[in-house]
Amino acid sequence: MSIDIDTAARVAKLARIKVEDQDLPALAGEFNAILGFIEQLQELNVDDVEPMTSVTPMRLTRREDAVTDGNQQGKVLANAPDAREGFFAVPKVVE
Amino acid sequence: MSDLNKLTIAEARDALRKGETTSVALTESCLSAIDGADALGAFVHKTPEIALERAKAADARIKAGDAPDMCGIPVGIKDLFCTEGVPSQAASKILEGFLPQYESTVSGKLKDAGSVMLGKLNMDEFAMGSSNETSVYGNAVNPWKTGDDLLTPGGSSGGSASAVAADLCLAATGTDTGGSIRQPAAFTGTVGLKPTYGRCSRWGIVAFASSLDQAGPMTKTVRDAAIMGAAMMGHDPKDSTSADMAVPDFEAMLTGDIRGKVIGIPKEYRMEGMPAEIEKLWHDGAEMLRDAGAEIRDISLPHTKYALPAYYVVAPAEASSNLARYDGVRFGHRAKLAQGDGITEMYEKTRAEGFGAEVQRRVMIGTYVLSAGFYDAYYNRARKVRALIKKDFEDVFAAGVDSILTPATPSAAFELGKDVSDPVEMYLNDVFTVTVNLAGLPGIAVPAGLDAQGLPLGLQLIGRPWEEGDLLNTAYAMEQAAGFVAKPAKWW
Prior knowledge:
The structure holds 2 protein chains of 2 kinds.
Chain A: H1 5-14, H2 24-38, H3 73-77, E1 83-84, E2 87-88
Antiparallel strand pairs in A: 1-2
Helix pairs in contact in A: 1-2
Chain B: H1 9-17, H2 23-35, E1 43-46, H3 48-64, E2 74-78, H4 105-112, E3 116-121, H5 158-165, E4 171-176, H6 182-188, E5 191-194, E6 214-219, H7 222-232, E7 262-266, H8 276-291, E8 295-299, H9 307-322, H10 343-354, H11 357-370, H12 375-398, E9 403-407, H13 423-427, H14 434-439, E10 443-450, E11 456-463, H15 468-482
Parallel strand pairs in B: 2-3, 2-4, 7-8, 7-9
Antiparallel strand pairs in B: 1-3, 4-6, 5-6, 5-10, 9-11, 10-11
């Protein structure tokens, strides 16, 4: 499996990370090194193996369906790069 | 008493109880050691006011009687832990200026126990790295050195390891996703415990790979790891994977008696090209445990060689998902936008500016292995291999093995700034530690000797799930037999 420049650009887009065109070949090269290393996993026969879903077998505990937190607008917004009138502000999303 | 910063937790606790010193004196001693150690780059946010305030409160609590073991003990906190009102950046530019409005469960437990936070410690960005060189603060430095070259303290908990080894604090918190507590501990001649997955709450710790991340203590001795570890552990309803189990008194379990214990030596950890010194250290460690009355048994963990490649699918996959939250909207850095830029440009520019190269690489690898068409070939396959690795351990434990002895790292600390053009070369640092995270087991690195250049080397013991007490006791027996007392000569 080899990653070409177009694939590298597509992955960067999916990850929402801006990568300049001139940096794509180097990035594709690094991906190939890492994926080449990961490729060893194909040697194993894993047909009858269940994928691991939980590190320790446990039932997720449930709690009472009750409000335990809230009314913290100030704290929630305290670290926002741009907060206005009690909201997070972002560039226009809908035309 | 002089050199209070050089005390262990146990020594300081006992001295505090006897009224031979105060937490304020301990704290002042550490703060002055920290101010004289900027060359180590270990502490990246100093909090002397908080420290002295907590030290005074601790002294009052000790005087009143019935204070917990950690009361009055000055510690450093890895930058990955959210600490209320104190910068918590995960050593990333993207969290510049972030001031948590809450305290992580683990740092909160230490705080409630009366321990004194001296400041925040350097690390690899988002805990991704093995040399502390991916940090936005610049790298931490190992207090150990041989020639003129500065050495890495390891990573990702490099600042924690450096600070403990240089006696800037009595102990520190670390986190371990693939070896990030144990590798730096081994590189600095200190003790690092990664508890069983679920022992320490992950709540309020900046997430890297949630099914692998686990916090733990980094200390000067095994006894201190027992004391501090117990204070960090415990059930937390705010972390759904936190184990609802009692935490035993680990210190009381340190008898040093390991007669009849079965110690497994996995043949797959004997790697081609392993330095002779590491091989000898491993052999010597096994002999020490045999002399102490343990049975040494050759075992096989057949899927070991697939652990690192499986890890480099699972960890980036989880990281790409966890790090999706850094979007420039709710906290941290937001890029300056050009005329006409919309929300997608905001995301892309913010993340390109805010994440360093290694973090970007892992987020993109994670995105790739989770993308349509590759999910089964990579991610699902890696999860199946992970199940096989876990079963390897279950099989040897079922056959009566109590602990497993391995080297902690494939080398001693290496020079900072070494050109690593192939990212996979850096990943090999975790070759002996990463299996433990994949299987969710407890593991501990214990300093066991010096190499020919005089640099510390560590051995790793791996325990059964939830049996940290037994693991610590075996580590304690090995620590006593190894008699490692060397300290780095002060040059900073």
